Amino acid sequence: MRGVVLCLLLACLCRPALASAETMRLVTGDDYAPFTGQQLSGGGLLTQVVQAALAQVEVKTELEWHPWNRGMQMTLKAEYDATFPYVYTVERGQDYLYSEPITVIEQHLFSRAGEVYEVSNLAALTGKRLCYPLGWQLPPAIDQMIEQGLLTRHSPIGLPQCARLLLLNRDDVFVADSMIGAGALSQAGAAPSQFHRSKSTFPATSLHLLVSRQHPRAEQLIAVFNRGLASLRTSNQYEQLVINYLNAQTGP
User: Fold this and answer.
1) In angstroms, what CA-CA distances link 162 with 95, 131, 230?
2) 39: closest CA among 139, 153, 188?
3) Which listed residue, of 28, 31, 66, 118, carries a Cα 20 to 30 Å from 44's Cα?
């Protein structure tokens, strides 16, 4: 009897986290260029990275698109296996397991040309209107200003809408990484010369893939993804994905 139990335990321990060619259901949001977007090549740079990382460990993917907040809530209920890309917060960490960083970003303040705001002098934003999409996590310093009533937040569905709202003088500033901001301006049909990007930046943050702690295989899914991401990096395929994506945007 002990021999049978031992064999069963060993079988469980040796079983792979995910079977080869198993499918992982993913959800992400739109208008987060260049990282995610339905109109972007391959669904965006980080969509390609996530799918390529899972392909490294022979896991297939099914990707669906939902508004950011809805996709996160559906992932929380384990209706999807994972969502991406998100920054870490203590509050989210209570509900989700986080992967290793997919990428690291540094965020700037974007404002209309001629209206200069710097991260090094956030007090100048007092009384201004911030545009930041629903479901996106703000830098802590900006979040604190909103909680104190020093800054008003407007939350459209995507960052291109923020660029348009600034030009319409309905909002004053938005926050974005340089690549994300440039992508938003392009999607909004706006020229970079119409905006000012701060020279100073918020502290660097990383973007991750998230799995709900309620998911019955949460730790296994994160471990499998991390293994695939590590393989993608060590094989230099990650770097090549980035180069190919950027080259495709700029053309020959």
Assistant:
1) 29, 6, 35
2) 188
3) 118
**Could you report the per-residue pLDDT of 33-49, keeping only the tens digit for each?**
788 999 888 999 999 99
Bond from prior residue into 252 cis (ω within 30 degrees of 0): no
State both tokens at 202.
Answer: 């918020």
Domains of the chain with CATH codes: 23-103+205-250 (3.40.190.10), 107-197 (3.40.190.10)
Low-confidence ranges of the chain (pLDDT < 70): 1-21, 246-247, 249-252
Q: Is 19 helix (H, G, I), strand (E, B) or coil?
A: coil
Asked whether the beta carbons of 63 and 54 are under 8 A apart, the reply is no
Write out the two tokens for 196.
Answer: 């000012």
Distances from the Cα of 6 to the Cα of 14, 16, 17, 58, angstroms: 12, 18, 20, 29
Tokens of residue 248, six digits: 């495709």
Beta-strand pair 23-28/60-65: parallel
